[in-house]
């Protein structure tokens, strides 16, 4: 089982990034997918959720209206489009796959928002 995140980097405040998470080793389409983040000295927090069929989405209040989660089950990939980025969005972003029986994590990708 692998979840491989990509797309992180350094961006100026107000900028955009698109994170990707490519899954392998399990039946991606049957898993709910999540993005979490962890800033230095803080606990890991949920950022966005998308259900296995893709029809249901939820967001943390801090990112509503700025971030969009989506998935392509044909490509076994989940995305996080991040717009209007703020310095407080700086964190390591983790991809998570979950169903009733299993819970998988990626290794994380660093997002730094700074001028």
Helical proportion, percent range: under 10%
> Can you count the beta strands?
11
Provide a count of the helices: 0
Distance between the amino and carboxyl termini: 37 Å
Rg, Å, rounded? 13 Å
Question: What class, by secondary structure content?
Answer: mainly beta
Chain-averaged pLDDT: 96
Shape: globular
* Uncertain residue segments: none
Order of helices and strands: EEEEEEEEEEE
Strand content bin: over 45%
Largest sheet: 7 strands, mixed
Characteristic terms for this protein:
115 residues; mainly beta; 4-stranded antiparallel β-sheet; 11 strands
Question: What layout of secondary structure does this protein have?
Answer:
Blueprint: E1 2-6, E2 9-11, E3 17-24, E4 32-38, E5 45-50, E6 57-59, E7 67-72, E8 77-82, E9 91-98, E10 103-105, E11 109-113
Parallel strand pairs: 2-11
Antiparallel strand pairs: 1-3, 3-8, 4-5, 4-9, 5-6, 7-8, 9-10, 9-11
Structure notes:
It is a single chain. With 115 residues, the protein is mostly beta strands. It contains no helices and 11 strands. Strands 2, 4, 5, 6, 9, 10 and 11 form a 7-stranded mixed β-sheet that branches. A 4-stranded antiparallel β-sheet has the order 1-3-8-7, with no helix packed on it. A hairpin with a 4-residue loop joins strand 7 and strand 8.
